[in-house]
């Protein structure tokens, strides 16, 4: 492989910037800049100089020898002062060696995958970890990055290989008496793996929402205080507040960290039979987004008679507003009861994510569904009890392949481009 380099920290003014070099010429390039490298796994303070001997910066130099590095290759990291000028000068000096090229997005991580230091699910976990905004997202990403999906796939793989071996033994000794009936053990192993897969699939939706974020729609009739509430949650004026009904026409969004969960609150148009064509579009959009949201919070103006108002969508939480006028419910204007409303939303979402599992990407769901479908067919063949042992063994091997795709043992090239497109250069 070519030797590659990139800035591993955010570009711009900072206290410290890290430049990473990985590949067969990494150590030689490090020597050319620093004069002498520290021992593997150690650090040393060195003066970096360009090819003409001009001083570039004083840097902390780290050296890693293959395969004991993140990428599995020889690696040198230069921790320099984070000024734009210093970074540019050191990058230019590295490039001038003619022994290296700029890394592509995610190429360091890709090399870690190809060198067997990470599996595909760990790569996804690392990507999620970099993008994590809340504590729940961080914990979820850490589970993937630390090899949780690999452990799950390996357990299932061992059980299915055992079942396959038992079936193939009956094929190999078809003309002889097999001393033990393998049927009970094979059936139990298949059922056990199907159960493990079902548990992952049951928790997929909650896990996916933790990764991508929940949506909470604030709905209700016009002038119920929806925009006032969304401004209070945001801590700034993002929605126009007016006594004129129908002011909100489009769906406004506010993303917050709610007790560690990523939540986007949606301010929607007031729900009523509007005559204005533009307001009608807003009402239609409001109902559509509310129907797709994870939680719907209905606000009712407590100071007015609402009659038989129906929002037209399922309601999860309901509050009377304008308690500053009525003494009942919440007041979005003064903030009374807003903390309790947020606690109610948090409790509802926390209950839903309590059963979340490792599977959090669409790719995971598809692989698990494929493995389950193959095992269901295998069990049908098994229960028929005819001479379908070869077909049964084939389905079991295919199910193992589907589970192997979770961690990239098979079909890895088909998804690498999509995954690494989300990485930044330097990672």
User: Structural class of the secondary elements?
Assistant: alpha/beta
Low-confidence stretches: none
The total count of strands amounts to 11
Bulk shape: flat
Description:
The chain is α/β, with parallel strands linked by helices. The chain has helices at residues 26-34, 84-95, 107-114, 120-131, 135-145, 148-172, 183-202, 204-212, 226-234, 277-292, 323-326, 338-353, 362-384, 389-404, 413-420, and strands at residues 4-7, 14-22, 43-49, 55-64, 75-82, 101-102, 214-219, 252-258, 261-267, 295-301, 317-321. It has 3 domains: 4-103, Gyrase A, domain 2; 126-203 and 360-420, tRNA modification GTPase MnmE domain 2 (Four Helix Bundle (Hemerythrin (Met), subunit A), Up-down Bundle), CATH 1.20.120.430; 213-353, 3-Layer(aba) Sandwich (Rossmann fold). The protein is built from 15 helices and 11 strands. Strand 8 (252-258) and strand 9 form a beta hairpin. Helix 6 (148-172) packs antiparallel against helix 14 (389-404). The protein starts with a strand and ends in a 7-residue tail after the last helix.
């Amino acid at each position: 492989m070519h030797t590659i380099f990139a800035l591993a920290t955010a570009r711009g003014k900072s206290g410290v910037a890290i430049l990473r070099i990985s590949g067969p010429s990494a150590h030689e390039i490090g020597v050319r800049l620093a004069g002498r490298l520290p021992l593997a796994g150690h650090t040393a303070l060195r003066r970096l100089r360009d090819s003409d001997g001009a001083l570039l910066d004083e840097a902390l130099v780290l050296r890693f020898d293959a395969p004991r590095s993140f990428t599995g290759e020889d690696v040198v990291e230069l921790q320099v002062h984070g000024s734009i000028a210093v970074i540019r000068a050191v990058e230019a000096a590295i490039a001038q060696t003619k022994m290296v090229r700029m890394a592509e997005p995610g190429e360091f991580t890709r090399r870690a995958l190809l060198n067997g230091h990470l599996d595909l699910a760990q790569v996804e976990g690392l990507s999620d970890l970099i993008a994590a905004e809340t504590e729940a997202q961080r914990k979820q990403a850490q589970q993937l990055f630390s090899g949780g999906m690999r452990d799950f796939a390996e357990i299932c793989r061992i059980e299915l290989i055992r079942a396959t071996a038992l079936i193939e033994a009956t094929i190999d000794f078809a003309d002889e008496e097999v001393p033990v009936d393998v049927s009970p053990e094979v059936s139990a192993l298949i059922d056990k793996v199907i159960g493990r897969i079902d548990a992952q699939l049951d928790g997929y939706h909650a896990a996916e929402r933790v990764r991508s974020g929940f949506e909470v729609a604030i709905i209700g009739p016009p002038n119920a205080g929806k925009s006032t509430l969304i401004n209070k949650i945001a801590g700034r004026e993002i929605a126009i507040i007016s006594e004129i009904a129908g002011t909100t026409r489009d769906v406004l969004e506010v993303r917050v960290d709610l007790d560690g969960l990523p939540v986007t609150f949606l301010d929607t148009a007031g729900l009523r039979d509007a005559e204005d064509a533009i307001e009608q579009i807003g009402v239609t959009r409001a109902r559509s987004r509310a129907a797709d949201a994870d939680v719907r919070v209905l606000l009712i103006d407590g100071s007015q008679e609402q009659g038989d108002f129906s929002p037209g969508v399922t309601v999860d939480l309901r509050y009377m507003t304008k308690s500053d006028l009525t003494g009942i419910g919440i007041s979005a204007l003064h903030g009374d009861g807003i903390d309790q409303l947020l606690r109610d939303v948090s409790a509802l979402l926390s209950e839903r994510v309590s059963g979340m599992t490792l599977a959090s990407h669409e790719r995971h769901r598809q692989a698990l569904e494929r493995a389950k479908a193959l095992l269901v067919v295998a069990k049908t063949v098994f229960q028929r009890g005819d001479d379908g042992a070869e077909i049964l063994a084939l389905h079991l091997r295919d199910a193992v392949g589907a589970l192997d795709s979770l961690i990239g043992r098979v079909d890895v090239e088909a998804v690498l481009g999509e995954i690494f497109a989300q990485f930044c250069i330097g990672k």
